[in-house]
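Hey, I'm writing a tutorial for new members on how sequence and structure tokens pair up, and I'd like a real worked example in the thread rather than a made-up one. If someone can provide the structure for the chain below, I'll link this post from the tutorial.
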Amino acid sequence: MVEPAVSFTVPEISSQLHDKIATLAKDPSILVECIYSSLMKIDGYEALAPAVRDDIFQSIAKAASLWFDMLLTGSPPAGHVMTEVEESARRRVHQRVPLPSMLRAFQLGSREIWRVTTELARADHLLTDELFFSISQSLFDYFDGMAQIVTKAYAFEEYHQTRWRDSILHRLNTVIFHAPDDNDAFVEAVGALGLDATLPRVGLAIDAALDKLPPDIRSSECNRIALTVSRHFRVEPEMVVHVWHRARVVVWVPCSRGATISHCDRAAYDCAQHVGASEHGVRAIGIGLMNQGASGWAASAAEAIRAMELAPQRQTNSKVHRYSSIALEESVRSKTNVLRYLESLVAQLNNEPDLLATLITFLGESRRRRSTADALGIHPNTLAYRLERIEQLLGATLDDAEWIAKLDIALKLRH
């Protein structure tokens, strides 16, 4: 429990005002409905789930009742009542109601209660004087004090929730990158976050130049970037998992169950483009392939980082780099003999730079001879001679799709 550091001054009221407030307190439904209707129109309240809306409605009724009871009894709220108020504020953290929105709700509520209370004094100058010179200051002091109490309770809960989540994420980070075979620890950590460990995910690696920042500021920036990712990938923030790894923000975003790897890859690329455009501090984003389980999350993250690492060599101007674009090259790199064979193809052209440049341009121009000759600034007959010479040296057929695929990969590996 957050200890309240606020005391309430309870004004004495006349018997006439007491009777009128007692009548209003018996049936405050119209007042509560009016406050509730106003709240549901402000940011942070408009898209809440029905169960949360019902909880907020009950809290409004409780807040109005507390104010009227204080006036009628002449005593401030009891300790157990304030505990309920604090618990309500803590629930708002988990219901994802922003603190500014909650404080705005207090402003709207106090204003509406004051409006209804002043209606009691209509055409009665004595009650008007009592309300304006005695009750008004107490009303605003009361709601200001309540706002202080709920703010402290909200901040306290938010801090502990953040610390708890950070602890779980640190444990998950350790499992994924250092013990990916420990499936039980992975399932336990993911489950503690309220997530399904079997749901496939795609890993993103985001370079936002955060490595030089102090740890607390970097953590805040990582959280902010994760929220940006959740918004552009159109998933709930709680569904996105992120850690700080190898000087990058690594984020795992859920994919639809049953979705193909290629579909998830295309969708992730489109969403990541929006992330890169909205976050000007982001220098590069890598996208791994969809996978699942601790080892799958680790593999997707490693692929995303690898895609970024090779991006400068591929001379691309885009911020977003997919592992799928280099998957064949990476597969070849893992096979020593295949790699040596492809390297030998290019090596046969090293002594004739014109032929190598011609092959690179020919493939870059999608094997269109006229545009290739124009790009090289040579006569079409010269181009035909060079292409024949390449085929003779390599024993290749440049109209054969299999040879084109091999030469394309060989040239990419050369870079």
